[in-house]
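Researcher: Excuse me, tokens okay?
***
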Amino acid sequence: MIPLHGLLWYHRDMKKIVFTDIDGTLLNTRHELTARTKAALEMAEACGITIALCSGRAHDGLLDITDRLSFTPYLVTLNGAYIIDDAGNTVSEHFFTRDELTELEAIRKSCGLGLLYFHSKHWAAPAHDSFYDDEYSIVKRPGTVCPVLEFEGKVHKYLTVGPAGQNRLFAEAAAKALPHLEIVPSSSRYTEVNTKGCDKGQGIADVCRYTGTDIKDTYCFGDYDNDIAMFRKAGTPIAMANAVDKVKALAAYTTLSCDEDGVAVALERIINGNKG
């Protein structure tokens, strides 16, 4: 782990934004927001730092976290496909065409994978199956059950679910058929697909533009492949100890793991470091 004693950027007169991934980063491996991490987020916000949750999850998959906080954070959801400010206003959104969804469905089915898809503030699945049940157990809110090609609203993110080998086959085939889309694994079990140019890096850039913040005055926390675009743009990227090597290679610092309150440890040092 790289020491965090250099994280002394905080000054009350400077506008700062902290972007944090959720699963494997802000939450521990039991998908819990610990009391220490909650307190650190609230302390940072009270000091004038803007907090943005930056996740592959949809809006309703973040409510279990936001409902526990004493403030309203920015939400960069669906890897930046749908962004909401702290007053609930839409900052930006990106969604698929019907032709893109049709092509993705053909490839997914040929690879024998399950599906979850996401529309603005909610999630959905084509059937009430084991993949639906797994997602419900994580986000703790019911999703829409409807085949994606029969869904009448906008689809902002497409997520295949299944064994790593089948996901690799899907990613390769989808990248060949639809090279303009953003296709990236978010774990060994999931492959996330977003529209052209839509990733967490673009998401944090959209928030900076919206708030008038210089992107060099941002910090981000992450652990997996879908955080790489964010790490390449943020002023100071901080990797979790449990992050994959590709993420750690881009980090300015490495904090403790998600099971050791790594985000809280870094935030506490960022805010309190100037006092010591």
Summary: The chain has a mean pLDDT of 91.
